[in-house]
Write a structure and sequence with these properties.
heterodimer; A: alpha+beta; Ubiquitin-like (UB roll); five-stranded mixed sheet; 28% helix; globular; B: Aldehyde Oxidoreductase, domain 3; 10 strands; 33% helix; elongated
Chain lengths: 79, 140
C-alpha cells in the first residue's frame, strides 16, 4: 500500500488529507502522479513539491516501494 | 524540552534562552528571532492565522537546518520552535535562537535559519480575515 498525503492549500482543494493506493511491483512515482492529476486537476496546479518518505524528489521515474509515503505540497509559507 | 519542536501551544523565550545557555558557558553572543502574527496584511485586517504542517518532514528539515547552521556558522547551539494550529493576531509564531562565541556568527546564523526555514520547512499559513480566508503563498 502507498500512503498519499495532502496538506494546506492542496488538501483544501482535494477535500481529503490522506489516501491509500494499491502497490504493485515496478510502480513509479509518475504512475501515482498521473492518476491523481486526473482526479484532482485543480489541486495539482498548486503542487510545487513532492516528497517520498520525508525527502523531496524531482525524478518522477523513481520506483516506489510498498509502504512508501508520498506527499504533494504547495510552496511553503511558514515562519 | 528538545531544541527543535513543532507545537500547538505558545513558547517562552525566557525558557528557550535558559535551555540554550545551559549548554555552554563559552557563549558570548546569542541572536534571537521571534515571528509574530500581524493583524494586517495585503491591505486587509487579519484576525487569526491558521498553520498546517507536514509534521514529520518539518521536524526532519528543522533538525537539518539546526545541524547545518551549527557547522556553517560554528555555533555552540541553536533552537527552533514553530507553532501550528490557530494563532491570534499579535501572538508568537516562531522562535529562533543562535548561540555562538561572538555576535557576528550568532546574527548571521539567526538570519540564515529563519530565511531557510521559510523556504525548506513544509508549513503553510492561511490568513483568516473578516472578508474570507486565503492561503499565503509568498515568503518575503
Amino acid at each position: 500500500m502507498i500512503q498519499i498525503l495532502f496538506f494546506g492549500p492542496v488538501a483544501e482543494l482535494t477535500g481529503v488529507r490522506e489516501l491509500a493506493a494499491d502497490f504493485h511491483s515496478g510502480m513509479r512515482l509518475q504512475d501515482v502522479v498521473a492518476n491523481l492529476q486526473n482526479r484532482y486537476a485543480d489541486a495539482f496546479r498548486g503542487v510545487s513539491f513532492i516528497s517520498v518518505n520525508n525527502r523531496q524528489v524531482r525524478d518522477q521515474l523513481i520506483v516506489l516501494n510498498d509502504g512508501d509515503e508520498i506527499a504533494f505540497m504547495a510552496k511553503f509559507s511558514g515562519g | 524540552m528538545t531544541a527543535v519542536r513543532i507545537q500547538l501551544e505558545d513558547f517562552s523565550q525566557d525558557a528557550e534562552l535558559l535551555a540554550l545557555r545551559a549548554g555552554s558557558q563559552r557563549m558570548g553572543g546569542i541572536a534571537t528571532f521571534i515571528g509574530c502574527a500581524r493583524d494586517f496584511s495585503e491591505g486587509r485586517e487579519v484576525s487569526e492565522i491558521s498553520f498546517d504542517a507536514y509534521g514529520s518532514m518539518a521536524l526532519v528539515e528543522m533538525n537539518n537546518l539546526r545541524s547545518e547552521a551549527i557547522i556553517k556558522f560554528g555555533l555552540l547551539d541553536a533552537r527552533l520552535v514553530h507553532r501550528i494550529g490557530i494563532i491570534g493576531a499579535g501572538e508568537q509564531i516562531v522562535f529562533i535562537a543562535a548561540g555562538a562565541e561572538h555576535r557576528a556568527a550568532a546574527f548571521d546564523a539567526c538570519r540564515w535559519l529563519i530565511d531557510e526555514l521559510k523556504q525548506r520547512v513544509p508549513i503553510w499559513k492561511k490568513e483568516i480575515t473578516p472578508s474570507g480566508d486565503s492561503w499565503v503563498t509568498q515568503h518575503p
